[in-house]
From TrEMBL, chain A:
Keywords: Cell membrane, Membrane, Transmembrane, Transmembrane helix, Transport. The keyword Isomerase does not apply. The chain crosses the membrane at residues 12-33, 42-66, 104-125, 137-156, 193-215, 236-258, 298-316. It comes from the Bacteria. It is a multi-pass membrane protein. InterPro entries: ABC_transporter_permease (IPR051393), MetI-like (IPR000515), MetI-like_sf (IPR035906). It is found in: Cell membrane. This is Carbohydrate ABC transporter membrane protein 1, CUT1 family. The keyword Zinc-finger does not apply. PROSITE patterns: ABC_TM1. GO terms for cellular component: plasma membrane.
TrEMBL record, chain B:
Keywords: Cell membrane, Membrane, Transmembrane, Transmembrane helix, Transport. SUPFAM superfamilies: MetI-like. GO terms for cellular component: plasma membrane. The keyword Nucleus does not apply. PANTHER family: ABC TRANSPORTER PERMEASE PROTEIN MG189-RELATED-RELATED, OSMOPROTECTIVE COMPOUNDS UPTAKE PERMEASE PROTEIN GGTD. It comes from the Bacteria. Its main location: membrane. This is Carbohydrate ABC transporter membrane protein 2, CUT1 family. It comes from Streptosporangium subroseum. The chain crosses the membrane at residues 28-49, 94-123, 130-155, 175-196, 225-246, 280-299.
């Protein structure tokens, strides 16, 4: 039972090596920059400062992205060209089509639900006495890993057969109102919805914070004027609040769409992609790293890239405008 | 005070039926807000409470029965952290791995992104705009696009037309952490450079000009003027990167493997959820251990986190 701390020492040594390497890199860059002669054109300085980052970006992102694109046109063992076979597989084979369908459901529902919950909550707690506590409570799941959240919710969904005491909260509620306990995560197609709940639970705090900040930015005169004109709370929400914070709503929708398309951890932790719940990122991992089908994995990654591309381009344009 | 003033102001200007409507909606609104708050906290509370209950109780009764029969124990934590049999969590090893992975994976991108952002924001050289746009555009590439080739870069090296350009790294044991640091650093750079560049380019140009007239080199300007001024931005990026690395599963799974030698806690938890999905006494305690550290950091630095969110620092 006793834990052997001595066995862990090599790791800590490795950590020291890592930190030391970090200090050396920083020191070398700074010393080189200090030594380089000051001129009007600073390309020497620029090279020294940019080189480490650009080198890593090249090795870690640019070259791999190109290679992945090439791999997607090759067979599983990457030995011969197979043209569009991997893509044909993705759009025709039932198991792959299920994956695409699930991803579609995810990306349609998550941004919508996250934004709605976050918006409603932000409006409701706005300018109340417990606003900051109320927001913190919903915000906390943002700090939890998707894996941790997956376990928290597996526990909520836990199943015991009807004659036993339930240990999962949801089944307890079902039993309390006279229903039969269900295996929530094992019955398609609704199990995907129960996974989506987890994502919404994690991300709603993000929407709350961003939208709440936007709501606070609405000029007080507009709000007062609407109240004086006798606007009801609902009219207020749809005619004043919502139009004023449109940009922030779009930001949340866009960020959530991208995050959802790349979602991996929740599915992996809660069902492992079984029972028809797999999504693109999970299937990509399975094909490339578990079944050794590099070609199919690469094709899924490329497809993911193509899906994300227009949304990110839109997001980046928004960000650049905001930064200006 | 302000709420009171508002209420009286409203009472004066609105008619009676409107007042009733406002109050009614106020009550429904509070009820809805409370329901949401309860829904959002109960699952975590249930997990925490369960992790402190004795094993046989966790497995046979719901955590809500605790209030009828309160029994608490730390045995689950002792077992999951320090147990050495393969069926126990061995979580302590994975916890150490998570720390070893996280510290350099935050430090490296922070420094490299700061250097690059300074160069792109304040050094006059040809092609600056193009490099910035290029780095910027890399935010588009999902990390799934680079996993397979980057892993083979480490395990097989680079070979083009039979020509070995770089050798296989063959990292074993603790040295495997290097490839995890490497991967995390690469994936963090586009967003990091973008964020820090935004903050740095907003600094007043006269400040740099004055320093240069006084004979300060770029190294000195960076160290003495720019970095202290963008400290809040550095803190924001650091906390985001910390949460990202600590909570990451995919990169850990692929680059750190699945053994106690180098895998982070998230990988272990995912394993346990898969193979020991009903060992709730270990899962609950293990999950809580992994959650409590980012939660603490998060709560103590929430200000920077919120500022970062509003500045758009969410990994796309």
């Amino acid at each position: 039972m006793d834990f052997d701390f001595a066995a862990e020492q090599p790791k800590l040594v490795q950590l020291l090596i890592g930190v030391a390497a970090f200090l050396v890199v920083v020191a070398v860059v700074l010393i080189l920059v200090d030594r380089a002669p000051m001129r009007r054109r600073a390309w020497i300085h620029a090279t020294i400062l940019l080189l480490p980052a650009l080198l890593l970006l090249g090795i870690g992102l640019v070259i791999p992205a190109i290679r992945t694109t090439l791999l997607s046109f090759m067979s599983g063992d990457s030995r011969q060209w197979v043209g569009l076979d991997n893509y044909a597989w993705m759009f025709t084979q039932p198991e792959a089509v299920t994956v695409l369908r699930n991803t579609l459901v995810w990306v349609l529902l998550v941004p919508l639900l996250v934004t709605s919950v976050g918006l409603v909550y932000a409006v409701l707690v706005d300018r109340t006495r417990f606003e900051s506590i109320a927001k913190s409570l919903v915000f906390l799941p943002m700090a939890i890993s998707f894996v941790g959240a997956g376990i928290i919710w597996r526990f909520v969904y836990a199943y015991r057969s009807g004659d036993q005491d339930q240990i999962g909260l949801l089944n307890q509620l079902v039993v309390a109102v006279g229903g039969e306990p269900q295996q929530w995560l094992q019955d398609p197609p609704f199990n995907t919805l129960f996974l989506i709940v987890v994502m919404v639970w994690i991300q709603a705090g993000f929407a709350t914070v961003v939208l709440s900040a936007a709501i606070k930015g609405i000029p007080a005169e507009i709000v007062e004027a609407a109240k004086l004109d006798g606007a009801s709370p609902l009219q207020m929400f749809f005619r004043v609040t919502l139009p004023s914070i449109r940009t922030a709503v779009v930001v949340v929708l866009v960020t959530q769409s991208i995050g959802t398309l790349k979602l991996f951890d929740i599915v992996r932790t809660m069902t492992g992609g079984q029972f028809d719940t797999s999504v693109i990122a999970n299937e990509m991992y399975n094909q490339a790293f578990r079944y050794g089908e590099t070609g199919k994995g690469a094709a899924l990654a490329v497809f993911l890239f193509v899906l994300v591309l227009p949304i990110v381009v839109y997001q980046i344009r928004q960000r650049r405008e905001a930064a200006r | 005070m302000t709420t009171l003033a508002q209420t009286t102001a409203r009472a004066k200007t609105t008619t009676a039926p409107q007042r009733v409507r406002w109050r009614l909606s106020g009550r429904i609104a509070s009820a809805v807000a409370i329901v949401i708050a309860v829904l959002w906290t109960t699952p975590t509370f249930g997990l925490l409470l369960s992790s402190l209950r004795p094993e046989d109780q966790i497995k046979t009764t719901g955590w809500w029965t605790f209030f009828a029969d309160p029994q608490l124990t730390l045995e689950n934590y002792r077992e999951v952290l320090f147990g050495t049999s393969s069926s126990s969590g061995q979580m302590m090893s994975f916890l150490i791995n998570s720390v070893v992975i996280t510290v350099p994976s935050v430090l490296f991108p922070l420094a490299l992104a700061a250097f690059a952002a300074y160069a792109l924001a304040w050094l006059p050289f040809r092609g600056r705009e193009w490099i910035y746009i290029g780095v910027f555009a890399l935010q588009i590439v999902p990390l799934q696009m680079s996993l397979v080739p980057l892993l083979s870069f480490f395990s097989q090296g680079v070979e083009i037309f039979g020509l070995q350009l770089s050798p296989a790294w063959n990292l074993e044991g603790p040295a495997r952490f290097i490839q995890v640091w490497f991967a995390h650093t690469c994936f963090a750079l586009p967003l990091g450079i973008f964020l820090l560049h935004n903050f740095m380019s907003e600094l007043p140009g006269e400040l740099m000009e004055a320093a240069r007239v006084d004979g300060a080199s770029h190294g000195v300007i960076l160290r003495k003027i720019v970095l202290p001024l963008v400290l809040p931005a550095l803190a924001t990026f650091a906390i985001f990167q910390f949460l990202w690395v600590w909570n990451d599963l995919l990169v850990g799974l692929i680059f750190a493997g699945g053994t106690p030698d180098s895998a982070p806690m998230t990988v272990r938890l995912a394993q346990m959820a898969g193979t020991r999905g009903n060992e709730w006494q270990r899962l609950t305690a293990g999950a809580f251990v992994s959650v409590i550290i980012p939660l603490t950091v998060f709560l103590s630095m929430q200000r920077y986190f919120v500022r970062g969110l509003l500045a758009g620092s969410v990994k796309g």
